[in-house]
Structure formats: C-alpha cells, structure tokens
C-alpha cells in the first residue's frame, strides 16, 4: 500500500447534507453491510406512495425528516417498517434498488452485497416473488449499468420466530431465488444468534455464505454465538467485541471481517458521538474492519459520507483509508477474479495511466 502515500483524497462533503455532492473520485470499495430497504429516501417514499395511492401519516418531506431523530435501534425500526408500506410492486423494489446503485456508484462502491428483509414484506401481504424479483432484476445488470458487481443476501428478522425464518427460507429455495448468503438483522437484544441454529445449518447445506448482525446493541457473547453456533464467516457491526479482549484476539487471529457502520452507530446511540466511535481502536487492534452505510437514507449518509465524516473527526491516514477499502474487498463474497480486479483498481490509483 506504499503507493498510497499522499494518495487520493476522500471527497469532502457537508455532514448531514441532504444530497451530498461527490466532487472528486472516492476510493473503490465493497459495501458489505447495506439494507436495501434502508436506502428508501424520503422523496422516493412520497413518490411511491402517490403511485400506489397510499396516504402517508406525514404532511410532507419536512415532517418525515423530523422523525429521523432516533433514540435507539427500536425507534428506528418502527419508522423503517412503517415506510416499507409504500413498496407494493416489483417496479417499486426495482426503483429503490436502482436509486441505491446510482448513488453508490458515485460513492466509490464497486461491489455491493445487498441485504433485503423478505419477512418485512411477506408479513404485510407482499408475495416473496415480488420483492425478490424486483430487487434481483436490477442487480442482474448492475455491473454493466453502474460498474457495481452485486449479490443478494436474504436477511431474517431475529425478533420473529425461527419457524417464520425457515418458512421464508424454504420459499426462497422453492422459487430458486438468486441469493448468495443469509443474514440476521432487526432487534438484537433478547434475540441471540443461537435462536437460529437450524436456519443457518440449512443455509450452509444449501451452499450459501453466512453472515449475521452481532455485537451492535447485543453483548460480545452474541458474536461468539454467531461464530460458534451459526458458523458465520462475517460479523455485521461487531463493535462491542472491544469489551472482550479474548474475543478481539480471536477475531484478529482468524481475520473475521467486521462490517462496521459508523454513522449508523451514532444515529442509533450505540456511541454518543462519532469521536467516541471505536473504529480507530479496532484498526489499531488489527481487526479486519470495513466501513459501510447500513441504512443510508436514515442514518445521514452513504459510504463516502461515512469515510468523509470519519476523516473529519479522526484525520485518517491515507494508509488507513486504503486499508479499510482493501479490507472491504478481501472480506466480500465476490469471486477471486473480481476481488483481484478491485484490488488492482485500488492499488493502481496512483499509477500513471
Ligand atoms: Zn444492519
């Protein structure tokens, strides 16, 4: 990474700008922790509501935006699920996905592993095929259209039963859904990974990759459970590992990827301010961390915003920025060929053309 010294500048964007402008080229990264439903921008919520004849409980954009002050994970989830009511047709899911990819391309994302929550849609009467096909139809041509290779992760809601997850999983298998991995998200505390042992065993048997949210609001023991009981390859969030030195050592030794989402952690009060975020300590400990946007429409920014705000607070070195970008690529479920391409793009940024 020596060729990064004095390298490309991460673009400066105004914190909390509604529509940040990307003025210079950001680092090529893989986004590994992104919920497609969390990319639903207020403008699109209103547009889809109008198209589908749905009356929203907000008088306008300002009133909706005012609700984006969250006190914890649950207060966010309440709004997040309520807004999903506007997603009715395949076209709605496709439009949402297209809007994310367009914005992500400007943020430097070259590979994206996109989670969707099928249960959040089937539970309100939307057929599995509608949500899966709507998202997948756009992902199928994402590399040609946006320069972003993609894969789809079916994420399961941990506050629902394992039976519900298994039912939806079987539905995904029956329709031959183009999913590459399974994940576990939603309200963490009180819903430990061990609750989903059978689901993950089935997913592994089906040849799928495995990831799970753990150690965001939940304790470090949930990270241990995700590794030992679910057999995950990657941990989403994982920031509370820092409370357990033995676990940190294990994660470092095994190079377990942690998909960290700094702006999300601030908005959901996992940390008080960005200056209190453990990311620099995690890097210093040798943990395999990457920077991701989680639910960017709700948390104040996309991957480039996360990088620029981290940089504003911590003055990240070029080496660390490049390391974070390289970690994201290495930690992805992309093919070795695609990883090599992306690493070459990252390493070659300063090479004369
Ligand atoms: Zn998440």
TrEMBL record:
<dbReference type="InterPro" id="IPR006330">
    <property type="entry name" value="Ado/ade_deaminase"/>
</dbReference>
<feature type="binding site">
    <location>
        <position position="294"/>
    </location>
    <ligand>
        <name>Zn(2+)</name>
    </ligand>
</feature>
<keyword id="KW-0963">Cytoplasm</keyword>
<dbReference type="GO" id="GO:0009168">
    <property type="term" value="P:purine ribonucleoside monophosphate biosynthetic process"/>
</dbReference>
<dbReference type="InterPro" id="IPR001365">
    <property type="entry name" value="A_deaminase_dom"/>
</dbReference>
<feature type="binding site">
    <location>
        <position position="35"/>
    </location>
    <ligand>
        <name>Zn(2+)</name>
    </ligand>
</feature>
<dbReference type="GO" id="GO:0006146">
    <property type="term" value="P:adenine catabolic process"/>
</dbReference>
<feature type="region of interest" description="Disordered">
    <location>
        <begin position="1"/>
        <end position="24"/>
    </location>
</feature>
<dbReference type="Pfam" id="PF00962">
    <property type="entry name" value="A_deaminase"/>
</dbReference>
<dbReference type="GO" id="GO:0000034">
    <property type="term" value="F:adenine deaminase activity"/>
</dbReference>
<dbReference type="GO" id="GO:0008270">
    <property type="term" value="F:zinc ion binding"/>
</dbReference>
<feature type="domain" description="Adenosine deaminase">
    <location>
        <begin position="28"/>
        <end position="346"/>
    </location>
</feature>
<feature type="binding site">
    <location>
        <position position="213"/>
    </location>
    <ligand>
        <name>Zn(2+)</name>
    </ligand>
</feature>
<comment type="similarity">
    <text>Belongs to the metallo-dependent hydrolases superfamily. Adenosine and AMP deaminases family. Adenine deaminase type 2 subfamily.</text>
</comment>
<dbReference type="GO" id="GO:0009117">
    <property type="term" value="P:nucleotide metabolic process"/>
</dbReference>
<keyword id="KW-0479">Metal-binding</keyword>
<dbReference type="InterPro" id="IPR028892">
    <property type="entry name" value="ADE"/>
</dbReference>
<protein>
    <recommendedName>
        <fullName>Adenine deaminase</fullName>
        <ecNumber>3.5.4.2</ecNumber>
    </recommendedName>
</protein>
<keyword id="KW-0378">Hydrolase</keyword>
<keyword id="KW-0862">Zinc</keyword>
<keyword id="KW-0546">Nucleotide metabolism</keyword>
<feature type="site" description="Important for catalytic activity">
    <location>
        <position position="237"/>
    </location>
</feature>
<feature type="binding site">
    <location>
        <position position="295"/>
    </location>
    <ligand>
        <name>substrate</name>
    </ligand>
</feature>
<dbReference type="GO" id="GO:0005829">
    <property type="term" value="C:cytosol"/>
</dbReference>
<dbReference type="GO" id="GO:0043103">
    <property type="term" value="P:hypoxanthine salvage"/>
</dbReference>
<dbReference type="InterPro" id="IPR006650">
    <property type="entry name" value="A/AMP_deam_AS"/>
</dbReference>
<feature type="binding site">
    <location>
        <position position="33"/>
    </location>
    <ligand>
        <name>Zn(2+)</name>
    </ligand>
</feature>
<comment type="function">
    <text>Catalyzes the hydrolytic deamination of adenine to hypoxanthine. Plays an important role in the purine salvage pathway and in nitrogen catabolism.</text>
</comment>
<dbReference type="InterPro" id="IPR032466">
    <property type="entry name" value="Metal_Hydrolase"/>
</dbReference>
<feature type="active site" description="Proton donor">
    <location>
        <position position="216"/>
    </location>
</feature>
């Amino acid at each position: 990474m020596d060729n990064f010294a004095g390298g490309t500048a991460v673009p400066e964007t105004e914190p909390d700008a509604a529509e940040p402008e990307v003025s210079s080229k950001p680092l090529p990264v893989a986004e590994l922790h992104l919920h497609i439903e969390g990319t639903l921008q207020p403008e699109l919520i209103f547009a889809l509501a109008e198209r589908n004849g749905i009356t929203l409980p907000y008088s306008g954009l300002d009133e909706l935006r005012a609700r984006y002050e969250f006190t914890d994970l649950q207060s966010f989830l309440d709004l997040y699920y309520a807004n999903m009511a506007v997603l009715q047709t395949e076209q709605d899911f496709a439009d949402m996905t297209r809007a994310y990819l367009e914005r992500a391309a400007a943020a430097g994302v070259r590979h994206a592993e996109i989670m969707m929550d099928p249960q959040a849609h089937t539970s309100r009467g939307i057929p599995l095929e509608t949500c899966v096909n709507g998202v997948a139809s756009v992902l199928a041509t994402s590399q040609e259209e946006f320069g972003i290779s993609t894969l789809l992760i079916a994420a399961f809601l941990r506050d629902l039963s394992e039976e519900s997850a298994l039912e939806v999983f079987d539905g995904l298998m029956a329709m031959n859904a183009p999913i590459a991995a399974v994940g576990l998200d939603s309200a963490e505390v009180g819903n430990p990974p061990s609750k989903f042992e059978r689901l993950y065993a089935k997913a592994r048997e089906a040849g799928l990759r495995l990831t799970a949210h753990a150690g965001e609001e939940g304790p470090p023991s949930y990270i241990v459970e995700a590794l030992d009981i679910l057999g995950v390859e990657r941990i989403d969030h994982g920031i509370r590992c820092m409370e357990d030195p033995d676990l940190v050592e294990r994660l470092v030794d095994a190079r377990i990827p942690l998909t960290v989402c700094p702006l999300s952690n601030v908005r959901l009060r996992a940390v008080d301010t960005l200056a209190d975020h453990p990311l620099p300590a995690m890097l210093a400990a040798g943990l395999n961390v990457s920077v991701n946007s989680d639910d960017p429409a709700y948390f104040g920014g996309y991957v480039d915003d996360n990088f620029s705000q981290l940089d504003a607070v911590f003055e990240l070195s070029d080496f660390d920025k490049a390391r974070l970008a390289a970690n994201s690529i290495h930690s992805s479920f992309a093919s070795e060929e695609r990883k090599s391409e992306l690493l070459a793009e990252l390493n070659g940024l300063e090479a004369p053309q």
